[in-house]
Amino acid sequence: MTSTSPGLPNLVPGAPIQGRVDCAVDDLLRSLPDPDHLSAEQRRGMIARYTAVLEGNFIYWMTGAFLAARSEDARSIILENLHEEVRDSHPEMLRRFALAAHAVPTDVDASAVYRDLTKVRLFIGRLSGVQILLTMAFFEGFIQRFMAYLADLAERQGSSEMVYTDVHGVCDITHTQELFRALEAEMALDPPAPETDLFEGVDLLRGLLRTIVHSDSLELKVS
Ligand SMILES: [Fe+2]
Predict the structure, then answer these.
(1) What is the pLDDT of residue 219?
(2) Helical H runs in the chain?
(3) Cα 132 to Cα 105: distance, rounded to the nearest angstrom
(4) What separation in Å is there between the alpha carbon of 37 and the centre of ligand 1?
(5) CATH: 1.20.910.10, 1.10.3720.10, 1.10.1370.40, 3.90.1150.10. Which one for 12-30+37-214?
């Protein structure tokens, strides 16, 4: 992580922000366990928790970004992303991926992510355009770089259904760059107050992704 302070006008050009987002993605990727050391149940659990979060929430959260964004540039970039998600039915693509890996989420998997998922949902509900766009840029950046690892887990589960990971390992490179462009447009039109923690949503989502990766799905996290 850099020591760049959030919420300052000199962050508007985007580069320092993107650097912090890249660091956050790097941190998460570095924390991924060696697949050679995972049991079949641990592999299944990670795929299932990922599916439990992404399948029903990605489009919903991108819709939140659309509702919150005020700049035309940001709105058209988000709309293009949503169009692709819906037209190509990415939730169905992910469901097929999980089915083929014998990793359809169970109630236990859903319970494992529930607490952290709720925090992100409530954050999105506040409809803060700049913060949500930054969160989704981080999300896309993580997804794109996580795909090779996820595909490896699925393959070790005996699956050869890789459409989801193939598509997202490529298309999300463009999506991430476009979302940073949307963020820049939104910050120029509707700059957040100096005291705003720009990375609030990123931090909440990082917590959720850590739970996806590291939670023992046999340990219920509902409290
Ligand atoms: Fe997608």
Answers:
(1) 53
(2) 15-30, 40-68, 72-87, 90-100, 107-125, 129-156, 163-189, 200-214
(3) 26
(4) 29
(5) 1.20.910.10
pLDDT at residue 15 greater than cutoff 60: no
pLDDT (tens digit per residue) in 31-60:
999 999 999 999 999 999 999 999 999 999
CA 152 – ligand 1 centroid, Å? 19
Cα 61 to middle of ligand 1, angstroms: 12
Amino acid at 25: V
What are the extents of the domains in the chain? 12-30+37-214
Query: CA 61, 94, 177: angle at the middle one, nearest 5?
Result: 50
Q: How many angstroms does the Cα of residue 165 sit away from the middle of ligand 1?
A: 10
Q: How far is the CA of 87 from the centre of ligand 1 (A)?
A: 10
Q: How far is the CA of 115 from the centre of ligand 1 (A)?
A: 23
Q: Distance between the two ends of the chain, CA-based, in angstroms? A: 31
CA 50 to ligand 1 centroid distance, Å: 13
Two tokens, residue 118: 């709720």
The Å distance, Cα 168 to ligand 1 centre, comes to 6
Amino acid at 178: E
Which single residue is written with the structure tokens 């760059």? 177
